[in-house]
Design a protein that fits this description.
Layout: H1 3-11, H2 18-25, E1 34-40, H3 47-60, E2 66-72, E3 86-90, E4 94-96, E5 102-104, H4 111-129, E6 133-137, H5 148-157, E7 161-167, H6 173-183, H7 185-192, E8 195-199, H8 207-210, H9 215-218, E9 221-223, H10 243-246, E10 253-258, H11 266-274, E11 281-286, H12 293-303, E12 309-312, H13 319-324, E13 327-330, H14 334-342, E14 346-349, H15 358-368, E15 373-374, H16 382-390, H17 407-419
Parallel strand pairs: 1-2, 1-6, 2-3, 6-7, 7-8, 8-9, 10-11, 10-13, 11-12, 13-14, 14-15
Antiparallel strand pairs: 4-5
């Protein structure tokens, strides 16, 4: 054991006194409060941690006393509202570039050293926290396999059920087969995970069938349905405030532009800022915290002096604005699309097409179902957005009767059944 490991072991148990040591060593099933840890690597954007936070808010609101520790890879996680019973550990950041390659975001150290640092931090925290359940977002082995030692530790220690949470679309099936084969992801699910939760509706995308998950892995899988993102607002202070008034906007319709994390939304953001908006229409553009500074500067120059236009780089809870919006222009990430669908907004979606086809597949399918309008990123121009905004014949979609949006309601029951050793299909 290294000096660092000895220090972690000492500060996590007996050195803090007999009362703390007794609580730390109590079998997980005997504790009055259920403990859940959740991991998101957050290497591109903030969608993963926002999804995990919504799950945490839901689970901590269930009748069973619950404490939840989020383990996030984006420092922006600290800007979100954490309800009682939920806290967050932020890891030193990794970044995935437009080609899908990983680098350090801020620390000037080798990528291998950063991954090792993150692995040790996660392992130390979970060793002390002793979660009843560990919910991992998207990557079965973690970013750059950083969870492999952690999962092996949890399996050896026993007492922790491991759950893999997946968005409904990962990428083009051929790309997923190669990536999952190279990473031996199905083997990881077989070895370490008790359940796989798919946050979607198979009527939109049948994840199990499209990715040809093998029988034993498919048997662990449950479709939760989409998450009704309107539930987020139950946990947000200032729910009754009108964000349009807070932004000083005059009366009129509101068009909301959402660029996700912003790291690859420059072209769409500039086209949105240059578009012609109908008379008496307000526009708010959320460019995203990762949009390059040079692009932000260009955007500020474009919108300077426009009384009906507001540019925001980061909003902790964009659903407050989305709820008020009449129309939305956005990219095609899971969270953004789920929010647009949940609030049944008329939307023009421009999906990312690289390095993954995920957004393109999702948006094309929803467009085929008549739920959103779609514009390929190669066709993004101010004129194209202006034409869509000028089309007054767009009907507001009625979505909740067509798709399963009961995912958040099902999660507490799915977790209960898993922790008592009973996994049954959810109707």
């Amino acid at each position: 054991m290294t000096g660092w490991e000895e220090k972690v072991a000492t500060t996590s148990g007996a050195a803090r006194g007999p009362r703390h040591a007794k609580a730390a060593n109590r079998p997980v099933g005997d504790r009055p409060t259920r403990r859940i840890a959740m991991y998101s690597h957050d290497t591109m954007g903030i969608g993963h941690v926002r999804r995990n936070l919504l799950i945490a808010q839901t689970l901590v609101s269930s009748p069973r006393p619950t404490s939840i520790l989020l383990i996030a890879g984006a420092c922006e996680a600290g800007a979100f509202v954490m309800p009682p019973g939920v806290d967050c550990l932020t890891l030193p950041s990794l970044r995935k570039d437009g080609e899908g390659n990983y680098t350090t975001r801020r620390l000037g150290i080798a990528i291998e050293d950063l991954v090792n640092l993150r692995t040790q931090a996660i392992a130390a925290v979970l060793k002390s926290f002793k979660p009843d359940a560990f919910i991992v977002d998207k990557a079965p082995r973690g970013a750059l396999r950083e969870l492999e030692p952690v999962l092996a530790m949890l399996k050896a220690n026993g007492g922790t059920r491991c759950i893999l949470g997946l968005r409904e679309v990962l990428d083009d099936p051929v790309a997923v087969w190669k990536e999952w084969g190279d990473l031996a992801n199905e083997e990881a699910i077989r070895e370490y995970y008790d359940a796989v939760w798919i946050y979607g509706d198979p009527r939109v995308y049948d994840t199990v069938a499209e990715y040809r998950l093998t029988g034993d892995v498919a048997a662990k899988t449950r479709y939760t349905g989409y998450f009704d993102q309107r539930r987020r607002l139950e946990f947000v202070p200032g729910l009754r405030d009108d964000p349009r008034k807070q932004l000083g906007l005059p009366p009129g319709e509101l068009v909301l532009g959402m660029m996700g994390g912003g790291q690859d939304g420059a072209e769409l953001a500039e086209a949105f800022a240059r578009a012609d908006f109908p008379p008496s229409t307000n526009a708010v553009l959320i460019s995203g915290p990762f949009m390059p500074a040079a692009v932000q500067s260009r955007l500020r120059r474009l919108v300077a002096g426009r009384s009906r236009f507001r540019l925001l780089d980061f909003v902790a809870e964009p659903d407050l604005l989305l709820r008020q919006a009449d129309r939305v222009v956005a990219m095609g990430g899971y969270n953004t699309v789920s929010e647009v669908l949940s609030f049944e907004k008329r939307a023009l979606l421009i999906p990312r097409v690289a390095p993954r086809q995920e957004q393109l597949i999702r948006v094309k399918r929803l467009h085929e179902l008549g739920l959103v309008d779609m514009l390929h990123p190669n066709d993004v121009t101010p004129a194209a957005i202006s034409a869509w905004l000028a089309n007054e014949s767009q009907a507001r979609p009625h979505i909740h009767g067509l798709l399963d949006f009961d995912g958040l309601a099902k999660l507490p029951r799915l977790l209960d059944e898993l922790l008592v050793g009973r996994i049954r299909p959810v109707a």
